[in-house]
Structure formats: structure tokens, C-alpha cells
Amino acid sequence: MKKIWSAVAIIAFVAVIYFFERQKNPALENPPAVNAAVSANNPATPAAPGNSAIVPAASPAGAGSTSPNELASRAASPSPTPAAGEVQNLPPLTVLDKARVAIHNYNSAFGENPVGTNPEITAALMGKNPKQINFITSDSGLRVNANGEMVDAYGTPFFFHQLSGQEMEIRSAGEDRKMWTFDDQVTR
Amino acid sequence: MNDKKLSVITRRDFVRRAACAAVGTFAMTSAIRDLRFMNAAVAQSNITDYKALVCIFLQGGNDSNNLIVPTVPSEYNNYSMVRLPVLALPLGSLQTLDGYTDPAGHTFGLHPACPELKTLFGEGKLAFLVNTGTLVYPITRAQYLAGTGSKPPQLFSHADQVTQWQTSIPDQPAVTGWGGRCADLLNSVNPNSLISLSVSLAGANTFEVGNIVSQYSVSTSGAISLQGVSGARLAALTNILGLPYPNMQAQAYAGVAEHSINTGALLNNAITNTAAANFWTNNVGGTGFPTNITTPNGGSTFTSSLSSQLKMVARLIEAGNRAAGNPTNGFGMRRQIFFCQVGGYDLHSGQTNYSSNTPNNVILGAQANLFAELSQSLLAFQRAMEQLGLQNNVTAFTASDFGRTFPSNGVGSDHGWGSHHLILGGAGAANNGSVIGGKTYGTFPTLTVNGPDDTGTGRWIPTTAIDQYFATIATWFGVDNSNLSTVFPNIGRFASPSLGFMKAS
């Protein structure tokens, strides 16, 4: 009987420790995209434009550079678990494609694409739609800035060009973060 | 027990029956509409004069914020402040509409590339309709923001808005265009019609799709004929097509092909006569229809598609109005509808040539080139109609996907909603004719982001529905009041079916 109570106490102790660890590090239970969605509604915690955390370390050509300060910041991080937004580490083209997939999923649900400006489209994708479906889910790998705009891997808002109700051209400004320049990346 | 059985309808049964009912209702609605067209066509058969409509579609969504600019100092300053530096046209560069003030006290200037439009406005042959767009019902900014008003589906989407502009029924699936519905209604007034009432210079389009009348596509050089088939070869082909075929599908195909060849030959023969003299090259101070457009103020020179399209329209109008048969080879028509289109207006970037080193180049660039083309081509077309003596019988008007955002995106402008448009025709001050020009119609929007006419990002909420815009034109064209709701089913939702910019006859 004593052994059983000891085992229960140990299990309870481990559970308490685990609970406190999760409380200290919310990234464990809130995947990055959810954090991003939260940041869109909370101007106090904006997703920093151009945050290199989401730019892959071994980025493809033209995928942006990481400042020494940011590298130092990462190296100094004591936590083995990446902070929110860092765990994605997605290449720019992957982020662009995930935006395309989100639009595609919306279209599948409603038979047409969301329309309007970036904040209007982002809001529609995040649940401001007739069925209140959130298409920017925890595994979507997409981020939203403080202005409610879905941003690319470099932190620049996407440009959504509505060709028709069924076809959307999504443009990322690319590494130079300037729209309509040679390094823009586009998908449909 | 039996009663119970009769009363029970499963969900599957209900869906099946509802679907059947929906299909039946749709078919019945179409049939009723066709019958109404047939009855209406009979009622319209007392028309004996000649009239033509020319739709000029500015594909891509025209930034009309820079076509007609307010010049009252406070309004211009507001315009300039929001559109600087990339899109703000300098006040001194504008083609001011001298002597004109609208009922609300606005004065205006046109884009510096449009001196010809200024001339036509001054002659009373050109009118502007401001802030018009697709609407399901009238809608206010408060309703738009609260999501309580009915909005046209897929606002800001190119293809959907093009379709809605051309059907004028934004809240229903596209079946016919409003030009096609007018053609259905008025086709019977063209006796022994040799070519279609609806002709397109820009290929297949929704505007001219009708239930009865099919659109006929021509190129800027005439009917599209078979390549490499002429003389004896063409005669042999015609003979083969004229043979009886046991297969009904083959017989029908042969009939269509033969009819197409004959119609093409007829049309090309008719327009050959119109091109015989120097008529088309001497109608604008000796320059004729400009094949090459040079943008003013040091802009570029380029070949114009629109000018070529309008030249062909002018020739088809001449042939259409001429008596049928020999010796003139005309078509003897009383009504014709034409569709032209020019692309390139979707200027998210490169709208002007502004740069920090060359700020004055804001008056040049892609939009300046498009406006120069529009301005010069319209003047040539109007002069051609005057030379034919048909200026009171022909009305040209513009349409476009949507307007564009008032603030710049840094290099251009993005998709908007309400926009300003041109209506051209008539003889100026005459009592009858077509356009009552030299005026603006509609309510000019308050050019303020988050102002009373804004959705929130400088996209104007239309204060005039395109239904009203087109109903005004269609009424002049011969659609009487009793048939107006057949052509424009939503017209009753708006204040007035007539905006007053067309003369009564």
C-alpha cells in the first residue's frame, strides 16, 4: 500500500512540474500560427515586420539575411524550445504556398474566394465568414501582423490580386520587402 | 396508415423534389422571359430610325480618380495630399473644364493627356457620369461597414465585376448581357437583317449575349475569313457545303459554315465601299483615325488597338445605315450594337512615370498612354459620325471592371468600386440627338479616406447604380418604359431609371 501511495505521489509531483513548465512556456501548447492570430488582435504584441526568425537559416537564394544581433539573440536563448514564430522556420516559397492553400481551403468551403483588402481577406480566413471557420490554423504556418494583415516570410503583407471569384494571385514582396520589384514571388 | 405514409417526406425526398422544383421554376422563368421578349419585340416594331450603341470596355479597372479631378482649391489640395507623390497630377497640368460648375459647386480638370475630351465636353457632346458602379440595392457606408446592406458578390474581383457590369444583374448568375437583351427586344426592327444586330470587335463578350440574337465577331480589318481559301477553292468548298448530308449534325455544321462564309463576304464587300475614299483618313484635321497615338507632354508613341476598333465600328455603322442591296451594298439596319475593348487598365504598378528624380513625369506613364489613346480615338470617332451625319444617332459609352483605390499603393492603385465614365454623341446644343453633353451627372464623391463615400480604404461606394446608367442609354436606344424592367430586372430598386444625360429622341 505504501508503495502505491509513493508511486501516486511521484506521478503527481511529475505532473505538477510538467504543468508549471507549460505555464512558463506557452509555445508548447500554442503553436506559432495561433500566436500569430492572437498577435493580430493584440497590437501590444505585433509580429515584427521582417522578423528573421521565420526566415530559414539556410534560406534559398534571395531569402533574406539575418542580422548579427538576431543571431546572437537566438544563440543566447536558454530555452531548447523555439519561441513562438521560430519553430516554423519555413522557406519563403513555402509560406507563400501556405497562403495559397488557405485561400484554396476557403474556396472549397464557400465555393468562392474571399475578397477585399489584405486585412479583409485575412479576417475572412480567420473566421469572419458565414461558417466562422478559421483557415489559419495552428499548422498553417502563416503569420498575421498587428494591422491584421497576413504577411510573407519576410514580414511584408501579401498583396492579394483578385482575378476572379475562383482565382487569386498572391504576391510576396520578396527579400527587398518592396512590392512590384524583380524579386517578388507570385502564386495563384 | 396510408395517411401517415402520404404525410412522411424524407429529407432525401425533400431535397430531390426541391431540386426538381428549382429546375422547373428556372426553366419556367426563362420561358416567361423569352415570351415577354417576343411580345415586347412585336410592340417595339414601330421603330423606323437608325441608332447605334458603342460600348468601350476599359479592361482591368480604370483609375478614374485621375481622369476627372476636382479643381476647387480645398478639394484639389485634399486630392493632392492623398495621391502624392506617385499619382497626384499637378493642378497646372490639368485640362480644365472651363466655365463648368456642377450643381454641388465642383469644378473639374481632366488628365493632361486628354485635350480632345476637353474639346468634346466644350462642344456639348461629351458627358461624365460620376461614381457609378455595381449595386444590388442602394447601400450606405454605415450599412457597408456593418455588413447589413446587400453588396454585389465578389466585389473587387476582375472577372466577376466585368460580368456584372456587362449583365447589369449582379445578384444572379450570368445568363445574358444587357446589350444582348436589348438586341433580343429590338431585333425585329431590322428588316431582313443580313448581319447580326450585335457585333464585337473584341471577341466573345458577355455584354452582347442574348437569348435570340447571337453576337458576330469581326476583326479590325473586317470579317474573319478562311485562311488560304479563295477563288476556285472557295467556290468548291461552297459547293460541297451546299450538298445534302444524311447526318443531321453534318448538315447543320455545313449550314452554319456556309452561312458564315456568305455573311463574311457580304460584310467585307460592304465595308470595302466605305473605305474607298480618303474618308477615314481625313476626319480629324487631316489625321483621320490615328493608328499611332502620341501621348502629349513628351510621352511615348504607340500603335492603338482602340482606334482601329472604332474605325471598323464607324465603317460598320456606315454600312449598317446604308440601304440594303445594290448598288450601295448596305445592310439597311435600324439598330446596331457594338462592343470594343482595350486592356491595360489594371495598373497596380507603373501607373505613372513618377520618380523622386523626375517628379514631373507623374503626368506620363501607362495611364497617360491609355488616356491619350481613349481621348484621341473618341475624337476621331465622333468626327467620323459627324462626317456621316449620324452624330445624333450614335452613342458611345465607357464601362470598366471597377474604379481604383484613391490612395496609392506606392507605384499605382488597387481595386476599387465606384468610378467615373464617359458618354459621347450628339451634336451639342441641338434639341434632339443623343447625349446632353458638357455636364457631369451623378454625385461626385467626397474624396476622403474614411469619408462618407468610402468603404474604408479609398474605394468609393457608388451613389448611382450601373442599372440606372445603362437604362438611361437603353431608353434612348428604343427600349420603352414597359420593357425596361425586362432588360434591367433590378431597376425598380433605384430611385430613377433615367439620369437625364440622353435626349428623348
Give an overview of the whole structure.
The complex is a heterodimer of chains A (188) and B (505). Chain A contains 5 helices and 5 strands. Chain A has 188 residues and is mainly alpha-helical. Chain A has one domain. In chain A, strands 3-4-5 form a 3-stranded antiparallel sheet, covered by helices on one side. In chain A, strand 3 (159-162) and strand 4 (168-172) form a beta hairpin. Chain A starts with a helix and ends with a strand. Residues 23-87 of chain A have low confidence and may be disordered. Chain B has 505 residues and is α/β, with parallel strands linked by helices. Chain B has 13 helices and 15 strands. Chain B has helices spanning 2-7, 11-43, 73-83, 115-122, 141-146, 158-167, 178-186, 231-241, 248-274, 305-321, 366-388, 466-477, 481-487; strands at residues 51-58, 68-70, 95-96, 108-110, 126-133, 198-200, 216-219, 222-223, 292-294, 301-303, 335-342, 394-400, 419-425, 440-441, 464-465. In chain B, strands 1, 5, 6, 7, 8, 11, 12, 13, 14 and 15 form a 10-stranded mixed sheet that branches. A 3-stranded antiparallel sheet of chain B has the order 2-4-3. Chain B has a two-stranded antiparallel sheet with strand order 9-10. In chain B, a hairpin with a 6-residue loop joins strand 9 and strand 10. In chain B, helix 2 crosses helix 7, helix 4 (115-122) runs parallel beside helix 11 and helix 10 (305-321) packs parallel to helix 11. The radius of gyration of chain B is 25 Å and the shape is globular. Mean pLDDT of chain B is 89; it is low at 1-7 and 23-28. The chains are: A mainly alpha (188), B alpha/beta (505). At the A-B interface, strand 3 of A face helix 6 of B.
Sheet with the most strands, sense and barrel status of chain A: 3 strands, antiparallel
Based on Cα principal axes, name the global outline of chain B. Answer: globular
Please, what is the average pLDDT of chain B? 89
Instruction: Give the spatial strand order of the biggest sheet of chain A.
Output: 3-4-5
Rg calc of chain A: 20 Å
Count of helical regions of chain B: 13
Structural class of chain A: mainly alpha
Shape, per Cα inertia axes of chain A? elongated
How many DSSP H or I helices of chain A?
Answer: 5
As a whole number of angstroms, the C-alpha radius of gyration of chain B is 25 Å
Look at the helices and sheets of chain B and give the structural class: alpha/beta
Largest interface: A-B, 15 and 18 residues
Overall helicity of chain A: 25-40%
For the largest beta-sheet of chain B, the strand count, sense and barrel status come to:
10 strands, mixed
Oligomeric description of these chains: heterodimer
For the secondary structure, the number of strands of chain B is 15
Q: What average pLDDT do the residues of chain A reach?
A: 68
Flag low-confidence runs of chain A.
23-87
* Overall strand count of chain A: 5
Termini Cα gap of chain B: 70 Å
